[in-house]
Description:
Elements: E1 3-8, E2 14-19, H1 32-36, H2 41-44, E3 50-56, H3 62-76, H4 101-108
Antiparallel strand pairs: 1-2, 1-3
Amino acid sequence: xxxxxxxxxxxxxxxxxxxxxxxxxxxxxxxxxxxxxxxxxxxxxxxxxxxxxxxxxxxxxxxxxxxxxxxxxxxxxxxxxxxxxxxxxxxxxxxxxxxxxxxxxxxxxx
Length: 110
């Protein structure tokens, strides 16, 4: 079943991705370089990540799934390097506005 998910790292930064098969082993394709630079060697020795399903559909097409993924990236601002590891869609200057109430609440439940 196609899903859109959120990965939360110990530093509270997030990554939003999608998976057409909901493979429990898949944790996205965030840049290992960007993630690694946020953790010390000691921190990298033992940490946990959390995977949450944000949206799912038994009937959605690939394009619908990708659209939902993009919507969640923009809503949660995971493409803002201060908040997350998504690098697309590119963060626009006007996107650096305060978080919406829904996005703020979603981040607080981490």
